[in-house]
Write a structure and sequence with these properties.
Layout lengths: L1 E5 L6 H11 L3 E3 L3 E2 L14 E2 L2 H9 L3 E7 L2 E6 H9 L3 E5 L2 H11 L5 E7 L2 H9 L7 H15 L7 E4 L3 H26 L1
Parallel strand pairs: 1-7, 1-8, 2-7, 3-4, 8-9
Antiparallel strand pairs: 3-6, 5-6
Helix pairs in contact: 1-7
């Protein structure tokens, strides 16, 4: 099963993903490939798989991604090989992907993998506050760029299975854990009906 978390930059996707991995057995993440620079605290293969722009473009040519996009002038993409390996091993994969990537991935995977999509909603003023208080403090131009994307991303919430207001971390994590457990039950029932 693939759990996709989306939401504007600063909505808390990464924090929630880490909490789910800590609290649930069999839940793992799948780091994207990216052409962005390594930041303080990043770990190769844990936060992202870091490649340069030319390597990323070669991977695009070789059709190595389920989906990829350019976000803030940097490439991000989901590896076909790595995602297949994790799902085939029976893991529940939690992945944070933007709204465009979600549409692509859902379409590509739904035939052979259960895909559950969750959009994390946050108020625009709260988002601005979160962005300004980040450790890797973005400059004002980047904050403006991210806030400008807010309305576009909000307009895509209709493609998601679940939309959750992320105003309290612990509550949001509990809601998502319940969603995952319920989706697992549905998946098991569907498998039994097929047999």
């Amino acid at each position: 099963m693939l759990i996709i978390l989306s939401g504007v930059s600063g909505a808390g996707k990464d924090t929630i993903k880490k909490e789910l991995i800590k609290k649930m057995d069999n839940v793992e993440t799948l780091p994207s490939f990216t052409s962005r620079d390594i930041r303080e605290g990043d770990i190769e293969g844990k936060t992202y798989h870091f490649v340069n722009k030319e390597e990323f473009e070669e991977m695009i040519e070789n059709k190595e991604f389920y989906e990829y996009n350019v976000h803030h002038n940097k490439y991000y993409g989901t590896s076909k090989k790595l995602l297949k390996e994790k799902i085939n091993s029976g893991k529940i994969v939690v992945k944070d992907i933007d709204v465009n990537g979600t549409e692509n991935l859902k379409e590509l995977l739904e035939k052979d993998t259960k895909v559950v999509t969750i959009f994390l909603r946050v108020e625009k003023e709260e988002l601005k506050r979160r962005l300004e208080s980040r450790i890797d403090k973005p400059d004002q131009a980047e904050i403006k760029l991210r806030l400008n994307r807010f309305d576009y991303e909000e307009s895509k919430t209709n493609i998601y299975d679940y939309v959750i207001k992320n105003d309290e971390l612990e509550k949001t994590v509990q809601i998502i854990m319940t969603i995952i457990e319920n989706e697992q039950k549905i998946e098991r029932q569907e498998e039994q009906e097929i047999r």
